[in-house]
């Protein structure tokens, strides 16, 4: 995992990177939360820089916010030898990377993830993007950051809700690629998690898959386990004022639903499904879905990026620790899975 730096070496490596590259200008992109809680922890490692604060939250991961970033870069005369430092969670990383990738046909950016979700998933793999017409990551490009600097000290600034959101992606990595870790950790639970160990292990799973298939033509699709249903749930609730879900909360719903579909299609055993459901229930509160909610979620499935010629393609589990991609599912099957989730 070259160019990914963990723990106590992360901040010195960030300072070294900025000094050695002699960038013409440096922009630190942050939101109101990371500017308050995280920027002071890393400020002394930075060379001379500008700071741009943008509003937090998935609802602000839009073209409107992107325009503000491009306007700032243009007004401050950032050239192609500049760098953007994305200091934040998945929204900052996705949008900051997207804006850097498009500005002047691409300037350098690095990620300093400040949430567990960003540390184990969003900051790694080179996916950048923004939401459009309420569809998750509808606009985006593949563009790798030049480096990623991951320090667990930022986790101390997070609420338990945000920690749980990131933990959903850690669980996903175990379910698709590490049955032994799932078996161990389902007994340990969230509160016993050793982030110094779990974060690098989780990043290693994703990095290995991304390296084998950087543009998601095949194998990388397994990283979308839980996300076909999960993204539809997340997109729907983004438009339900006061009921918005964090990404990991929606993915937790998706993991259960897609595990159920795996069992219904004769892949996953009933015993394995039960293990997954029990573990997820021990971490995540159940999302209440009314019949109207389920009806509202289903249309979002038509915009999933894995779809092909109208067929909804999903990632399913053959067993815990082994996923298969490009599995066709129907709207009716997802509807049954969402009803099943609600009855648990």
Automatic annotation (TrEMBL):
CDD domains, alphabetized: DHQS
Signal peptide limits: none
Single annotated GO MF: 3-dehydroquinate synthase activity
Pfam families registered for this protein in UniProt: DHQ_synthase (PF01761), DHQS_C (PF24621)
InterPro entries listed in its UniProt record: Dehydroquinate_synthase (IPR050071), DHQ_synth_AroB (IPR016037), DHQ_synth_fam (IPR030963), DHQS/DOIS_N (IPR030960), DHQS_C (IPR056179)
Annotated keywords: Cobalt, Lyase, Metal-binding, NAD, Nucleotide-binding, Zinc
Entry keyword annotation includes NAD: yes
Required co-factors: NAD(+); Co(2+)
Span of domain 3-dehydroquinate synthase C-terminal: 166-307
EC number: 4.2.3.4
Domain 3-dehydroquinate synthase N-terminal positions: 52-163
Enzyme class label: lyase
PANTHER family named in the record: 3-DEHYDROQUINATE SYNTHASE
Function: Catalyzes the conversion of 3-deoxy-D-arabino-heptulosonate 7-phosphate (DAHP) to dehydroquinate (DHQ).
Name of the protein in its database record: 3-dehydroquinate synthase
Species, as recorded: Adhaeribacter terreus
